[in-house]
């Protein structure tokens, strides 16, 4: 259950539209952006290409391949809790 006043934005990345899952579940939590490597759904590219869509937040959570996680550590504000 979400606390009142908590806003969640999700940036989900997939290889193709056929590889997508849980989109509707994430949409129930808040604003959701979808990125596919080939552009078959949502934005084209990698999630790190579109990280600016998310904006600045009090906390970041991320899972994925190590190169992506390293980029997230670089992009996020230094004074923000980040869980990788």
UniProtKB/TrEMBL annotation:
UniProt xrefs under SUPFAM superfamilies: Ferredoxin reductase-like, C-terminal NADP-linked domain
Database matches in InterPro entries: FNR_nucleotide-bd, PyrK_electron_transfer
Gene3D superfamilies: Nucleotide-binding domain of ferredoxin-NADP reductase (FNR) module (3.40.50.80)
Protein name (Swiss-Prot/TrEMBL): Uncharacterized protein
């Amino acid at each position: 259950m979400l606390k009142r006043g908590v806003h969640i934005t999700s940036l989900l990345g997939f290889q193709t539209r056929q590889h997508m899952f849980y989109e509707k579940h994430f949409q129930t939590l808040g604003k959701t952006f979808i990125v596919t490597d080939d552009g078959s759904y949502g934005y084209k590219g990698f999630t790190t290409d579109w990280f600016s869509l998310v904006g600045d937040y009090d906390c970041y959570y991320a899972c994925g391949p190590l190169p992506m996680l390293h980029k997230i550590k670089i992009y996020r504000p230094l004074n923000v809790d980040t869980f990788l």
